[in-house]
């Protein structure tokens, strides 16, 4: 048996794909390595009571009198296998050494290949000999000429003779054997389902007599052949075969979600935890969001990424991060990662939030916005625009509502004193209004931020992507979301701050099974029973948070409705229908800042509402448009 297989020190389990990994080197203990199956980072933690193996004693060989003149005895085996370099995103060992695991230190457990290969050859030899004998016998006595050529049927080539078996379509195979890929499914391709070959017992020798195949006769598309085929296959059998070929794929199966173990957030002294020292860590070209997730798993701290700050600072969650630190605290590692993207973090109430720098969050800046193209140099139009901005953009932050923000108007400009976050919202609002009215943009930022498509429309492609997952064995919420994100090729952020306020940990265990369902539907089936929900951020990002946090948040969306309006439907009537059909209580709540405004020049509805209501408005408008057609 392979020596490397025998010397596994202990096994660990990947928290994401649940595959068992064998640890073969004591140098790997304390390191954070990449799972060879799913690519996630796995801390190498030995089981309780495990002790590193003692180094083998050097054997002492007493020379015999006859060999005293020969060379001195060997001092024992001291050669070690070469140490491979760590892959991208692997961490250094907990001892602070630059050495990492050798190629066999962390791998999925399996059986030795050489022994199995040898027995395969031994078992196949008599079968191959028997097959050769059968072919020779058929050649000599069956009357089949091996070199004869048969004219292929119409529509067939010589490369694919008619008697060659044809693989069944996927729809047929799914009816015979169906399996839900779980967390061990490959990320890139769905593996083919193959029947596992039975293992052979090395102590036994099995001999089987091969069956003599019957001679095959090539079929030709002639009237006689067609008639003969009809007599051979009864009409009922032919009809059954035709129905099987035309069988539609199985319908999607409703997902099931069950909370198995609800865990409350762990009480953590954030400052003390951040002061802990990590012997060494190295990240190579790791995506920003994944680096934050790794640090979350390493530290045990609930770290939340602020998606609004990410958009404001024009950061991509997939930006590569490369760091290498030795003997650094968790705080220094976190600062190093966020500083790479011009971000910072806050730590309070047992939570850590990755957000914008402190001066952008707190300091008021005075900026002049030229809006002559939106006001036509009219002071009254500028006053109306200023009032609209204060109504739709962070209403609670203005001085008139008890905040600190101020605004002054001129014929051609708005002079605003606000924080960086509010300034970013004003910029997006003005540029979207220009886009709606067909005016050229003035900002040098990415024009995609100013498109009139809603957030849900931007994420529609990912939300409609079919997802299959089998977490029959309970897994943590964070692991399930990570798996779904990889399947849909989208980043799913977890609002741990909101979960903590609701008394729920991201490590709560859930069983979840879904088969061929759109991602949006699968997320609803997973999250709604937990009183959670999600909101689209952009085409590549979703955020999972609590339902109460979703209801309290207000997003601004633009809805072009020019095609809906006409003689039979005025803008005021459409607004009334929306307020009546979509969450009526939310419009009449005096404590709510929700609002809806119709921009006459662009025939566009501008709506400030919660993400669930925005989704319902989109559905209502789509249905109204369909009914008009």
Features of this protein?
629 residues; alpha+beta; Phage tail protein beta-alpha-beta fold; three-stranded antiparallel sheet; 22 helices; disordered N terminus
> What is the mean predicted local confidence, pLDDT?
76
Helix content: 25-40%
**Overall 3D shape:** globular
CATH architecture label name of the domain at 456-552? 3-Layer(bab) Sandwich
Output the strand order for the largest sheet.
1-2-5
Strand count, sense and closure of the main sheet?
3 strands, antiparallel
Amino-to-carboxy terminus distance? 73 Å
The CATH topology of the domain at 456-552 comes to: Phage tail protein beta-alpha-beta fold
Explain this structure to me?
By secondary structure, the chain is an alpha+beta fold. Among the domains are: 76 residues, no CATH class; 91 residues, Phage tail protein beta-alpha-beta fold (3-Layer(bab) Sandwich), CATH 3.55.50.30; 81 residues; 97 residues, Phage tail protein beta-alpha-beta fold (3-Layer(bab) Sandwich); 70 residues, no CATH class. The chain is 33% helix and 21% strand. The strands form eight sheets. The chain has a three-stranded antiparallel β-sheet with strand order 1-2-5, with no helix packed on it. α7 packs antiparallel against α9. The termini are far apart.
């Amino acid at each position: 048996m392979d020596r490397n297989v025998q010397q596994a020190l202990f096994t660990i389990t990947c928290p994401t794909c649940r595959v068992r990994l064998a640890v073969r080197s004591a140098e790997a203990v304390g390191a954070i390595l990449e799972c060879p199956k799913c690519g996630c980072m796995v801390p190498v933690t030995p089981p309780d009571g495990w002790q590193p193996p003692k180094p083998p004693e050097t054997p002492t060989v007493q020379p015999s009198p006859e060999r005293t003149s020969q060379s001195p005895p060997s001092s024992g085996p001291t050669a070690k296998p070469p140490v491979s370099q760590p892959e991208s995103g692997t961490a250094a060992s907990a001892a602070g050494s630059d050495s990492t695991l050798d190629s066999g230190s962390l791998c999925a457990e399996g059986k030795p290949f050489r022994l199995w290969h040898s027995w395969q050859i031994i078992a196949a030899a008599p079968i191959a000999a028997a097959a050769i004998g059968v072919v020779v016998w058929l050649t000599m006595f069956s009357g089949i000429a091996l070199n004869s050529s048969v004219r292929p049927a119409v529509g067939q080539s010589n490369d694919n003779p008619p008697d060659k078996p044809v693989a069944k379509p996927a729809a047929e195979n799914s009816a015979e054997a169906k399996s839900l890929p779980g967390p061990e499914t490959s990320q890139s391709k769905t593996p083919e389902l193959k029947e596992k070959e039975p293992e052979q017992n090395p102590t036994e020798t099995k001999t089987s007599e091969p069956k003599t195949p019957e001679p095959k006769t090539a079929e030709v598309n002639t009237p006689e052949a067609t008639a003969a085929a009809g007599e051979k296959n009864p009409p009922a059998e032919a009809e059954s075969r035709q129905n099987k070929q035309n069988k539609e794929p199985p319908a999607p199966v409703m997902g099931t979600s069950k909370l198995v173990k609800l865990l409350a957030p762990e009480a953590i002294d954030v400052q003390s935890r951040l002061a802990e020292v990590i012997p060494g860590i190295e990240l190579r070209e790791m995506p920003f969001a994944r680096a934050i997730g790794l640090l979350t798993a390493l530290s045990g701290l609930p770290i939340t990424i602020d998606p609004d700050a990410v958009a404001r600072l024009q950061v991509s969650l997939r930006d590569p991060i490369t760091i290498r630190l030795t003997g650094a605290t968790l705080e220094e590692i976190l600062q190093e990662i966020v500083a790479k993207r011009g971000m910072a973090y806050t730590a309070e109430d047992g939570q850590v939030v990755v957000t914008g720098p402190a001066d952008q969050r707190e300091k008021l800046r005075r900026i002049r916005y030229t809006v002559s193209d939106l006001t036509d140099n009219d002071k009254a139009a500028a006053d109306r625009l200023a009032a609209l901005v204060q109504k739709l953009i962070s209403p609670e932050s203005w001085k008139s509502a008890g905040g600190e923000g101020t605004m002054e108007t001129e014929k051609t400009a708005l002079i605003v004193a606000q924080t960086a976050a509010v300034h970013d919202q004003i910029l997006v609002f003005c540029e979207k209004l220009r886009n709606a009215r067909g005016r050229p943009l003035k900002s040098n930022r990415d024009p995609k931020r100013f498109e009139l498509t809603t957030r849900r429309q931007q994420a529609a492609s990912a939300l409609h992507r079919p997802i299959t997952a089998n977490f029959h064995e309970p897994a943590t919420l964070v692991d399930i979301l990570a798996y779904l994100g990889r399947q849909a090729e989208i980043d799913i952020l977890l609002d741990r701050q909101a979960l903590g306020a609701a008394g729920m940990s991201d490590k709560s265990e859930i069983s979840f099974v879904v088969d061929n369902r759109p991602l949006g539907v699968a997320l609803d089936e997973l999250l709604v029973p937990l009183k959670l929900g999600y909101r689209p951020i952009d085409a590549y990002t979703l955020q999972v948070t609590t339902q109460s946090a979703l209801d309290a948040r207000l997003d601004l969306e633009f809805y072009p409705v020019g095609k809906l309006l006409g003689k039979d439907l005025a803008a005021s009537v459409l607004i009334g229908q929306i307020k009546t059909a979509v969450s009526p209580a939310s419009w009449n709540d005096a404590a709510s800042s929700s609002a809806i405004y119709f921009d006459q020049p662009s025939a566009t509805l501008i709506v400030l509402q919660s993400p669930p209501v925005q989704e319902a408005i989109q559905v209502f408008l789509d249905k109204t448009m369909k009914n008009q057609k």
